[in-house]
Structures are given as structure tokens and as C-alpha cells.
Amino acid sequence: MSDHQLPDGRTVRTITLRNGPMRARVLTLGAIVQDLRHDDVPHPLVLGCADIAEYLDAGLYVGALVGRCANRIAQGRATVDGTTHQLDRNFRGRHCLHGGRDGTAVQIWQVEQVQADSVHLSLTLPDGHMGFPGAITIQAAISLQPDALQIAIQATSDAPTPCNIVHHGYFNLDDAPTVDGHRLQVAADSYLPVDDDLIPLGDPQPVAGTPFDFRHGRRMAGVAVDHNFCLQPSKGLHQVANLRGENGLALQVHSDAPGLQVYDGAHFTGLTGLEGRTYGPRAGLALETQAWPDAMGRAGYPNVILRPGQTYCHNTVYRFARDQ
Fold it and tell me: What is the predicted pLDDT for the residue at 256?
């Protein structure tokens, strides 16, 4: 482990993991997966910032665990058991995004345990933090398999509170300037259309006949996407997406979450990345396994309220292989 200091004086620890050919660097800032490598691939598998200070600016959310409630909450209003809580409105001054401006992505997590192939981190946010009710304690286990990155998250709260904690990594399997040459397949028959502020318009709609029909796989070129895909209900890990690069490298996403946010990284405008790379628009693809956005009070949306005595559990495996 090594230490770095942020401009605000906080200390960030870097933990290096390895399991066989897989290597990763994890930061205590935001539980960020800063770098992910396979010995047989001559470039990073994810986007990352060499300067950790960038994670508080242009690199915000890149590779981090975002929450306590990821994605957007309309008008920053969360009604829980009849009480409406005004949350931080950090998205366009109107909506709450990824838990507010002081969410999990910019917190310093505590190191609980480190092994050669895994790190266990924890974070407690107090009652009223960013307007959310209840003190919440989060445990995250980030580990490597010989061909995969696994992220297992648990959380408990002392009061009913929205909870949706999500890994926000960006993948680029080719090391190309954009992911336009990648081919994506998503196991979803429906998705959530959104308004200009990326707030869901209502009920899920069929992907058939839309640009968001990834059921049989399609190239990313020409598709602008920042949408939640409604996955088939499952009580355990199952494959929800497959991403293939033009170089024959494939990424399988396995999760127990009810949704998958696919985002094309359109907002990047020249972020300095790993080994001097420059990330422009669509430099990486985010595949965020999650609960659905703005789910509170919406009939038919999966529940996002964590109650005392319950344990939030969310598991995701990103598995790499050479395409056959």
C-alpha cells in the first residue's frame, strides 16, 4: 500500500491486488478501481486517472462506488414512509445524482482487511448526510479472480433510507480513442425512456424498434445512450451483458441487480488518464448494475428503501475472456 495526499489534505491509500494474470489498483478515495489489467492485454481494461486529484474534478465518479443512492432522484425529493426529505441537488441544480455532491465517490473509505487478491473497505454516512435519513454503514469487498473483477456490497441503516450503491467503472477493451467499435449485448427486453434531465418518463418500454435494442448485440457506433435497462428478475448472479472489442477481448457482466445503466461517456472532454492517455467523448463505456433510477414512489419499480434489520446486498462480476 502507498499513500497520496489530496489538495484538501486528506490522505488516500492505494492498494495493489493480484490474482494470477489479473492486477488492480484500488483507492480508499471512493473505493475507486483506478486501474485494472490482464497480463495478456497490453493496455488498461478501464479508464482511470493517474493524478488522484482529478477524481474530485473532471474524473468524478470514474471507477468509484457511487451512492448512497446512485443515479438520479427527481427534484432531489425522497419520500420515505410519508415524509419527504430534500436531498442535495447536485445535478443541473435540480436533481440529486449519485448521493449528492458529498456522496460515497468522494469519501475516504476505511481499510478493514487486505489480502493479495482482495480488499475490504467500509464507510459510514451519518443521519441527514446530503439530506438522506438514517445513518448507513456500507461494506465493500473488491476482489480479483484469475479472469475477473468482483465487487460485493452490503449495507445496513438505523432508519428507512434509499440505498443503491453502484460501481461506476468505464471499460475500453481495445485501447481505442472511443468505444464505437465495441459490440454490446444486453439481456433486457425493456428500458426506461428519459426526459432531457435523464429522469425516467414512466413505465418501462420495449427496446424493440428503438436504438436501444441490444438483445442480439450491436456496435456502439451511432448510439447515444445513458439509460437504465430493465433486467430479468433473478435471485442470484446471472449474465446481464456482454461487451466485445474489435481485438477479440470480451467482457461478461454478471449481477444480481434489477437494472443496468449503460452510459457511453459522452461528457469526457480531454481528461488526462492512465499512462498519459487523453479521454475524449465516448472513451469508455459504463456498465452500472443497479436498482432503477428515481424509483421511490413509482409503482412497478424495484424497491430501493433499506430498513433497519435488513441488509442491502449487491454483487457484480466483470469477467474477461478472449472471444471465440
Answer: 96
Of 168, 182, 254, 314, which residue is the catalytic one? 168
88 near 78, Cβ under 8 Å? no
Q: How far apart are CA 123 and CA 140, in angstroms?
A: 9
Which amino acid type is present at position 13? R
CATH number for position 316: 2.70.98.10
Asked if the structure places residue 315 within a domain, the reply is: yes
Is 203 within a domain?
no
Active site residue 112: no
Catalytic residue from among 85, 95, 227, 288:
288
What average pLDDT does the segment 90-100 reach?
A: 98
- Domain residues for the domain of 237 are 2-184+220-322
CA-closest candidate to residue 29, choices 16, 279, 3, 97: 3
What whole-number distance in Å separates Cα of residue 64 and Cα of residue 32?
A: 4
DSSP letters along 258-314, please? SEEEEE--TT-SSEE-GGG-EE-TTSSEEEEEESPTT-TT-TTSPP-EE-TT--EEE
φ/ψ region of 276 (left if φ > 0, alpha if ψ in -120 to 50, else beta) reads left
In a domain? residue 192: no
* Average pLDDT of every residue of the chain: 97
Quote the pTM value. Answer: 0.97
Q: CA 150 to CA 160: how far, in whole Å?
A: 28
Does the annotation mark 288 as catalytic?
yes
Q: Which amino acid is at 157?
A: S
Whole-number Å distance between alpha carbons of 301 and 319? 28
- Burial class from Cβ neighbours inside 10 Å (0-12, 13-18, 19+) for residue 128 reads exposed
**118: in domain:** yes
**Number of Cβ atoms within 10 Å of the Cβ of 5:** 11
Cβ(263)–Cβ(290) under 8 Å? no
